[in-house]
Amino acid sequence: MGKNTGEGFRRGAVRERTQFERPDGLWQKRDETTGQLMEVKQTEGPFKGIAKEPDGRDTENS
After folding, report:
1. Cβ proximity of 47 and 27 under 8 Å
2. Given 8, 13, 30, 59, which is the most exposed site by the fewest CB atoms within 10 A?
3. Structural domains counted in the chain
4. Is residue 24 part of a domain?
């Protein structure tokens, strides 16, 4: 289980989530089990601790 440290980084990965960069340059999360699109990051750069697609590291759905 990932845990925020409060120091600008996370220990461990967020499970069952992936992220991808949209054509407009923003990053969006996806739930690996349902495929449902989740929140979009409004600030620069990707989400911390979430695998980028395609990855294949967590489940066969990635």
Report:
1. yes
2. 8
3. 1
4. yes
